[in-house]
Structures are given as C-alpha cells and as structure tokens.
Design brief:
There is one protein chain. The chain is of the alpha/beta class. Helix content is 21%, strand content 31%. The protein has 10 helices and 21 strands. The chain has a 10-stranded mixed beta sheet with strand order 10-14-13-15-16-21-20-19-17-18, sandwiched between helices. Strands 1-2-8-6-4-3-9 form a 7-stranded mixed barrel. α1 links the parallel β3 and β4 (54-58). The longest helix has 12 residues, at 380-391. The radius of gyration is 21 Å and the shape is globular.
Length: 392
Amino acid sequence: MSGLGPKAVLALEDGTVFKGQAFGATASVAGEVCFNTSMTGYQEILTDPSYKGQIVTMTYPLIGNYGVNDQDIESYQTHASGFVVRELSPIVSNYRSDYSLNEYMSVNGIPGIQGIDTRSLTKKLRVRGAMNGYLTTIPDVSTEEALDKAKNWPGLIGVDFVKEVTHKSAFEWDKEDKLSPAFRLPYGPTESDGRVQREVLPDAEIPIIAYDFGIKYNILRMLRQQGFKVTVLPANTSAEEALKHNPAGIFLSNGPGDPSAVTYAVKAVSELLQKGLPIFGICLGHQILSLALGGKTSKLKFGHRGANQPVKDLDTGRVEITSQNHGFTVDGDSLPSEVTVNRINLNDQTVEGLRHKNKPVFCVQYHPEASPGPHDSSNLFNEFRQLVEKHS
C-alpha cells in the first residue's frame, strides 16, 4: 500500500462500512457502487460519461501505475463520482504520463478510497447487486452520517443523467484537423507529433449526425476514421431539427443512467425511424433505439462493466471479447417481430445486439470503440459506413 494517509469511508445502503485511506479530492459523494473487471483503462473510466452517478470499484488490485495523460480522455471532463481501489500505485512509470492518478483526481474533484478488501466488496455487489453508497474523504464526516446518506440516495432508476453530460450545443467533430487527436489503432498512415503517433485521416466526405447522450471521444475518432463528417447534436435535439443537417446516417451514442427516463430521445428516434435513414446505436443508444422500436428495458442485478465480456454473433457463430459498461438491458421478448436479436452475452444470455429486418438499422450493447481494448468489434464502424453508402 502506498503509505499511510488520511482516512476514508465507503458506506453501503445495506449497512456495510469499509474504512481505508483517502486519495484524490477531499470530498463526499453519493452514487451507485459498481465494479469494473478491467486491468487497465482507469483514465477512460473516470472520463466516460456513462459512469455519471457511479462510484466505481476496480477489481484489479494495483491501479495507477501508468499515470494519466492528456491524450486518452473520453470526454470534456470527468464524470465518475468516486473511485475505489485495493492499492494505489506509489510509482508512475510511463513516458506518456502527465499526472499521477492521485493528482488527476484531486484536480477534478473525485474522491478515492484505497486499502479496502475490493474482493469482498465485489463479491457483495455480485450477490446482493449494485447498491447505493456514500464515499467520503472528509475527516469530520461520521460513519453514521455516511450510512444515512447512502440509504437515502434516490438511485439511478427513473433519473435522467443524460441531460447532465450532453454537450449543450451542436458542433462538428474534427472540422479542420487532418490528423486524429491521438493514436488508437494503426488503421492507416501515421505521422509523429513528437510524443504521440498520429494517424492521417481520410477526407470527411459522408455527412452524419451523432446524438450525444454522453458520447465518448473515441467513438467520434473512429467515426472520423471511416470518412464520416460528424456533426454532434445535444441529446434533446428534435427529429425535425436533426434532419435539417441533411445527414446520410444517424449515430446514437452511449450514455449514463436509465434509458426509460430519456423520453425526449426515444420520441426523436421514433420519428427518425420513419425516414429510412441508416441508424447505428451503441450502449444507451442501443437501448433508446430498442425503446423507440417498441421494446422494453430493465435494470440488471450488477451490470456488465469490464473488458472481458463474451458476446456471440448469432448470425455467424463468432464470439467477440468486448468492453462493456451498462446497468440496464433490453428485454428481447418485448421487441416486435420485425426486429431480430442477433447478439447475446454468453455469461447471462442478455441481449447484446439487434437489427431491423426491413430498415437499415442496427445496434449493439457493448463498446466497439473500446480503448485500451479489446478491439474484436471495431469493424462495426466499417459496417456502418457500408450501410450508409448502400442507402445514400
């Protein structure tokens, strides 16, 4: 453990209390306590808007050893409420690192707790399900007060977190720059800017719109790598306003919280479905599209969060190892007959993808843009381009 530090407390709604050492910001936060099984990617997790309202537990025991850099952020700011680790690495060793994890969390107002038994916490969440919790690194907050805050936090169900993370106005991604913001995958020729290998991008020749329900920057990077000219729209953009951009296709992004609470997005997508345009959705976008098609969603016991989720493509029999982050799922039996479930999670048989039999529409529950990985599903962005070209 990286030395003795100030005390921190994590209280759960069932009365369980974990006491450890504080790091990051001196603050108190309430949120849904969940766990992520990835070995790396903590920077992407902290800046992923899908983690809004959540206190994230990393199951890998040592976190922070490669630091944090300015290139790998996934959003305009951090979004996770709190962070729980077994041990914060006292050493940062990576040539790309700009800050330690402790420094980054301190500057961005995220409290953390280390030195607790994360295996015990994960097992509790796996058996009991994700629970409301309260994490405090403020010394004078009592255990009783922390427990009371955990028990009285309203939770995620029925709450619209999308409105808190979406960009407030439309913008065009990568309007001028012919180089991708940072190296992700060697799709084509690259140039060096001194520290980071950067990819030379194709011309942005196909106009599409991307609904921002909490979009990750790497999704935008990978859409741009396919030659899309991407206009990002706020989550509450009406179908009428979206169509004024004359898009050749529509992308529906990831995002946080309960999809059934984002009623304005479901309404807009329902109207856009009538226009015959190609539509591709990821994560919350998948769920919103499913609701717009007439399906239903429900909350999972403890969700899928990690970089090792096996997904089977029912059309080909191929199994992909995927990165996932969601706490809700689509009820496959609720979907109309013209919608086909074509991907399932092999751990619990939940819906991981679907396509429409008559419309150029498909979506997946997982993250094909995953960085640092895995990259088994990155070809879905190329499939979207082919679909758009076919129907343009």
